[in-house]
Amino acid sequence: MKSVTLINYTGSKGGGAQYAFELTQALCQEGLPLVAVISEHNEHLAEWRSLPIEKLIVIPTYQSVAQLISRSLFWQDQKNRILEGLKDYQIQQIISPMITFWTRRINRLYPKADSIVVLHDPIAHSGDRNKRALQLFGESQLLKEAKEIVVLSDVFVSYVEDRYGKEGRVSKIPMGTTQVYGQLRDKIQAVDYAQDKVNFLFFGTISKYKGIEVLLQAYQKISQAVSNTSLTIAGSGDFSAYRHLLANQPSVQVINRWIANEEVESFFADDSVVVVLPYLDATQSGVIPIAIEYERPLIISDTGGLVEQAQSYNTGLLVKAGDVDALAQQMLEIANNEDLRHSLKEQARANKSQNTWSAVAKSFLKLLKEEKS
Questions:
Q1: Which fold has domain 2-176+356-370?
Q2: 20 to 30 A from 150, CA-CA: which of 19, 86, 341, 368?
């Protein structure tokens, strides 16, 4: 039997899907023998099929709570599919790029394998129901059973060590700079920006902790002071709590739906864009590496791991989380200062190679080697 490492990721879309694919692609490029179990709903499925991995197992997962419950109850079908598909391989190690509802179930199929689990959100976001649901599917047990836990920011290393009894077994490996969207064929132009304006962009799922209310209140202030700006809010989620803030707001467009992979580049590639992350709390953000790849200026709340992410690229303007006036002042400054915008773009261009996926993969290979010894 050939010894391999298993990539265990059964999520379908968003930052987790992007992270899992780019990590796996980089590990392939480093020559690590891999097999993988992924969801049939994975939005990067076509790209996964093109990777030079030993075996790709694609399983039916879930797209609703009802499907999650029913397919979890009849888990035996998926279990048999995985075991049969990988029967000719010796699973020595498992990497779980992001915890999903079935991560622990799949890991437990190979009890002799050492596991590395990437914990994206050590602390639940405000209003995060998904974290509670993951606990019902054994997130805490999974992390306690892991040989090594990877977090994305230094600020959470000690916290995770203490919480899960993993002293000396928690490593910080940052996100790589996102390149997958530029590699896609058949890209779609989903948004057009006014070229005579500074176009502020909020990109991502609409959630309470993302600070949409703060952003809209801040933008109202700057739109009263200058006429050379616009604001685009793009992402899926319930926007109803914020619609009243759109009244009498000039140059605001809301694209309230899931943004397809082929559309992502069109939001960031325009040279007039400034990306804003007005988060109230956060562990890290997959939006920052996308913005850096496209060399966009950033305004970022000083919360959680966001500060560390920005500092790793030596760019971005920091504002106090939840402070409408501070955010408005920073947005106004960047709108009025072309030299500042240019400087931030140059910083992003100069430093975007700081966190390459090749470097990330090498860090994982080092952990795998340490587990074997």
A1: Rossmann fold (3.40.50)
A2: 86
DSSP string for 75-125: HHHHHHHHHHHTTTEEEEEEEESS--TTHHHHHTT-TTSEEEEE-S-SSPP
Render pLDDT for 232-256 as a digit per residue (tens, 0 to 9). Answer: 999 999 999 999 999 888 899 999 9
pLDDT tens readout for residues 127-159: 666 656 666 667 889 999 999 999 998 989 999
How many Cβ atoms sit within 10 Å of the Cβ of residue 9?
28
* Closest by CA position to 284, among listed 209, 198, 191, 360: 209
d(C-alpha 22, C-alpha 170), whole Å: 21
Q: E-strand spans in the chain? A: 2-8, 34-39, 55-59, 89-96, 114-118, 148-151, 170-172, 198-203, 229-234, 252-255, 273-277, 298-301, 317-319
Please determine whether the domains at 2-176+356-370 and 181-352 fall in the same fold group of CATH: yes
HSE-CB at 52 with a 13 A cutoff on CA atoms is 8
Residue 35 has pLDDT above 90, yes or no: yes
Tokens at 290, concatenated = 């996308």
> Does CATH place domain 181-352 in 3.40.50.2000?
yes
Q: Where are the domains of the chain?
A: 2-176+356-370, 181-352
